[in-house]
């Protein structure tokens, strides 16, 4: 397959009606840079040989050149031995699904298929805790889904009993659990029938494009992010057919399009973030690059000192991905995210590589007319809120730590059909929004029994900001159980202290930090620590001080190796010292 045609990538968008230019301030989220920086020492010293692409197109797929294979990591060797995308694009999944697990484990290649290569199809084998069962991750650009899609996913997980459930992820996405290999071909067909795909959602691929969860209905939005995130997803996956131009990246890659002053999209933790900005009377985006989390290093995205008009979002994305694919290192997996390449080339060196891969070979410098207001109080989307469309409202519902069962999903689909337009929105905080509710029906919706129990539009002040990764119930990499423990600890803490304002608490089961603990006010990263008898017990490293928004900041370690049994009093103490909480006993006495 030849590389995608650049002539088809430039699309015309209508600029937003509201233009809110503001002067840039010193912040990691100010993408503008009014003057070209001096060439960095790093980029100036890069040898010309270093800029030779490390991959080449062979038989329709990009593969690492022989000369660059010394010292590569095991995952790269798996990709070289057999192209993962052939399981989908050449229908290899049909034959694999017919084999028993015993047959598969008896052969090195097929064992690597189910443990590694199937991740290109969004399938993750849970070998450690749920042998023979898979988690399936979808692509859901901007977190927008339909009642029909939700019902279909519910029908899939229902047949798997206790193992069957779904999670809302921290990238506005669905993950479903309990899937068995023989069912996969039919599930893939079922997904396609309702307009869904799981393709290219794991391993060294572009993850779900994130946007404003209330895009198109938000009275205060800067721009509707849905057209951009949809186009990005369609481009990346070649309209769900598979796009081998971008399936052999050095590591995973995250992208978001910002459309709101609230920065619901968390641009500072994405490899590429489009930040709305005007330039010379044109609407477009300043660019942030390189944000990521890993066990050994976490970095916030930095300005590329570049601006693109709205109709060049796709060519820019293509150029950035090609630069990363061609030049990124493939050794130690802890040093293969895109920021490591930016460090090596320097920002200007990386920018030059992106620029020369653009159709016209030119990349404009960043604009000083950022449209994101720096002084903006982040809005709460829970409960009932008026839309920009007169007579309609959206209703935000709390999904405790993002976990749903089949019956829950069916009920959400029913509510979306009965009160809204059959649409649901997923958020990066693992919650759900029902849009397009006739305002005259909101009271009836609020009286639904479903909203009176777990899925409240008015969660408690600490529950509303609670996020948790999968934990060791289903994930083999997680060191501790997270979801149930996060709920239990929060409930106990709420009995001890009264908090005057929302505090975001995130849980992650291991240093891979899928729960994004570094952006939380208080974060808990699973670890092993010592019990009273000196033996290992479940614990957590506690982080404090993460911020989101225009003054974003990654949290720092507050205390390491805290036993999970000791977390409740510590969290209560942190809330009193750092967040103005009042002990319940004192509050009651004052009353």
UniProtKB/TrEMBL annotation:
An example molecular function term from Gene Ontology annotations: heme binding
Stated family: Belongs to the nitrite and sulfite reductase 4Fe-4S domain family.
Ligase among keywords: no
Name the UniProt record assigns to this protein: Ferredoxin--nitrite reductase, chloroplastic
Annotated NCBIfam families: PRK09566.1 (NF007125)
Domain annotation Nitrite/Sulfite reductase ferredoxin-like: ranges: 131-193, 385-448
Gene3D superfamilies xref list: 3.90.480.20, Sulfite Reductase Hemoprotein, domain 1
Domain Nitrite/sulphite reductase 4Fe-4S: 203-359, 466-575
Highest taxon, organism lineage: Eukaryota
InterPro entries given in the database record: NIR_SIR_4Fe-4S, NiRdtase/SiRdtase_haem-b_fer, Nit/Sulf_reduc_fer-like_dom_sf, NO2/SO3_Rdtase_4Fe4S_dom, NO2/SO3_Rdtase_4Fe4S_sf, NO2/SO3_Rdtase_FeS/sirohaem_BS
EC number: 1.7.7.1
Keywords: 4Fe-4S, Heme, Iron, Iron-sulfur, Metal-binding, Nitrate assimilation, Oxidoreductase
Cofactor: siroheme; [4Fe-4S] cluster
